[in-house]
Fold:
Amino acid sequence: MTSKDIGYQALHLLLLAVVVLMSTSCDNGRKQRLRMEIEKANRDLPAEVEGLGRLDSMALEENAQFVAYYYTVLRENAQLNVDMINNNADMVKRKMLNTMLAGGKTTLDMFKRNKVGMRYAFKEEGTGKTAQVTITLHELDRALEQPLTQAQAADQALHDDLLISRQSLPVIIDDNLKVVDYVLEDDKLIYVIDVNERVYPLGDDFNMKEAKEGVMEELDASNPGLVSTVSHLKKTNRGLTYRYVGNITKTQVDVDISALELKTHFPDF
Structure:
């Protein structure tokens, strides 16, 4: 997706602080050790998390049953808003679990060994609106007992991302380009882009080579949302297509990047 898309970036980054914290504390497994690690981590907060907002603090709550993460959703952070979380609470929870499973069982196992769940509390800057997402230890256990394969988890994540991202359509790229739809097919993800043909003609003068190089440069920029999307596409053996549709003639031009090209060009995504 483009750097202006929501959905892909924000929800994948929900796990950033979790992985860092638990990787330092899972060996001990004692609640006191976990509490000490949280206190230590809080000394470096607040800190902004790209695509998500500002992580203000962490805490071990409800008799050490949950690790809680307190975020402020910043005004300038257009990738996430409290209404989106509240309107898609179950999907957000599923998305978080699938994101962890798509990377393997390590993160879920860390929480299980520490016998703690996760709680994310969000407060929107300016409006004061709040949202909360809680994943209990029972839900973690259930996810581990009936895990999806990495490919299945990545596929579900892509579907969930699109459902959330469609709520913010159209996405304005510039005055002459806007994303108007996302289409997930068996072999590719398609970004449907409305084009002002008076500025960007799609006829015989369209330079396919230049357009594809532009798309690859955007992916090379390592935007968190794009990295996450490409990672899921690779795991599901899908390619990526930018479908430009003229606003006057309705001419359609597809700039295709195959699954093999994604795997070859972006081995670290």
